[in-house]
């Protein structure tokens, strides 16, 4: 009788297993999607933040500062102004609006300026920030100390509401889609950029980022640290002093 050597049987079994593994690997689904008939994996529910010390966490699980912004009182309409007509803020004397706003009243009668480095009121701007197809009024003032003040007003049912008040050093103000981007130089040579978005009540902070300029390294090379995000919910650019005001809005 011809008996097969146990060593040869082991070799044949190993070859069969190797071939089977190759077939299985060849039939695996690609990383781009599922093979035909392959069931989709179940969708897992993403975990939500769970505070360890609730008393220190507030009552909101939203972004930092959102809870504080929610608890701010809604803005009140400016008193002493006639009810606006169909033309909205574009037909009203912007100085009259400033005189009706206690925070901007001291700056209302300053002269207009046309370039940086002067003290006075920049030309007022009209742009839609709330998405209602009606422009908001933006007024910025530069002071002798180098600080700037920005106030934004919206109109509802003929009444004027202040929805943003912020201050900083030499403010650069831009629109970013429907949002407002306010830039200010920092004392350390960088730049702070605060983004405001209409939340249905006021222009609230959605991001606050500091960008630091390149500084020479010890070996003569330049180092460029990545932008450092600040907690959202702040009141606007700052040069190290206390904020001159917070954000206001209306319901």
Please give a structural write-up.
The protein is of the alpha+beta class. It has a domain at 76-230. Helices cover 13% and strands 27% of the residues. It has helices at 6-26, 66-70, 94-100; strands at residues 120-121, 125-127, 136-142, 147-156, 159-169, 172-176, 179-185, 191-198, 203-211, 215-216, 222-223, 228-230. Strands 1, 2, 3, 4 and 5 form a 5-stranded antiparallel beta sheet that branches. It has a 5-stranded antiparallel beta sheet with strand order 6-7-8-9-12, with no helix packed on it. A hairpin with a 2-residue loop joins β6 (172-176) and β7. The N and C termini lie far apart (98 Å).
Q: What would you call the quaternary organization?
A: single chain
Number of helices: 3
User: Sheet with the most strands?
Assistant: 5 strands, antiparallel
Order of helices and strands: HHHEEEEEEEEEEEE
Organism: Streptomyces rectiviolaceus
Protein name: Lipoprotein
Region (Disordered): 39-86, 107-130, 210-251
Signal peptide: 1-21
Keywords, separated by commas or semicolons:
251 residues; alpha+beta; five-stranded antiparallel β-sheet
Indicate the topology.
Blueprint: H1 6-26, H2 66-70, H3 94-100, E1 120-121, E2 125-127, E3 136-142, E4 147-156, E5 159-169, E6 172-176, E7 179-185, E8 191-198, E9 203-211, E10 215-216, E11 222-223, E12 228-230
Antiparallel strand pairs: 1-3, 2-3, 3-4, 4-5, 6-7, 7-8, 8-9, 9-12, 10-11
């Amino acid at each position: 009788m011809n008996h097969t050597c146990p060593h040869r049987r082991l070799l044949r079994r190993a070859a069969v297993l190797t071939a089977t593994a190759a077939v299985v690997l060849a039939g695996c689904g690609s990383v781009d999607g599922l093979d035909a008939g392959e069931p989709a994996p179940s969708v897992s529910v993403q975990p939500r933040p769970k505070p360890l010390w609730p008393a220190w966490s507030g009552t909101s699980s939203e972004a930092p500062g959102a809870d504080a912004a929610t608890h701010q009182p809604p803005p009140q309409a400016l008193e002493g102004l006639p009810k606006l007509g169909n033309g909205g803020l574009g037909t009203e004397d912007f100085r009259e609006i400033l005189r009706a706003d206690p925070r901007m009243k001291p700056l209302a009668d300053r002269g207009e300026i046309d370039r940086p480095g002067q003290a006075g009121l920049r030309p007022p701007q009209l742009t839609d920030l709330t998405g209602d197809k009606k422009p908001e009024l933006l007024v910025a003032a530069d002071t002798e100390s180098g600080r700037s003040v920005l106030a934004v007003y919206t109109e509802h049912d003929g009444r004027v509401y202040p929805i943003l008040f912020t201050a900083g050093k030499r403010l650069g103000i831009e629109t970013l889609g429907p949002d407002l981007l306010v830039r200010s130089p920092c004392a350390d040579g960088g730049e702070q950029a605060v983004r405001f978005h209409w939340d249905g009540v006021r222009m609230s902070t959605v991001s606050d980022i500091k960008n630091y300029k390149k500084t020479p390294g010890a070996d003569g090379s330049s180092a460029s640290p990545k932008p450092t995000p600040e907690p959202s919910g702040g009141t606007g650019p700052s040069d190290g002093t206390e904020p001159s005001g917070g954000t206001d809005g209306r319901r």
